[in-house]
Specification:
Blueprint (H helix, E strand, L loop, with lengths): L1 H16 L4 H14 L2 H14 L4 H13 L3 H14 L4 H15 L2
Amino acid sequence: MASAAAAEKYAERSLARTPETYQARLALAVAKVTEGDLPQAVDILDRLIEDYPLRPDAWVQRGIARFGQRDAAGARADLEHAIELAPDDRTAKRVLKRINERLAGQ
């Protein structure tokens, strides 16, 4: 988790310099997911999606965080929306496939 803490510090420094940048806010959310602080990650991602609804990577990250919170329906919805926004996005498709495989194995 040392790398997650370093990533979070980097994201927070970036946010301090440029508080409204998409990339800095996304980086902080990813660091929160990595640390396991999923509620905080979802809060950050909710605001990011509200401000940038057409950016698929925020939807993907929120889908990952939601799945971590055991919200499979929310995770799937976010990932499917990301795929609608960017049909060629391999990440969204790969994550959705893995979630579906994990759920099928239960």
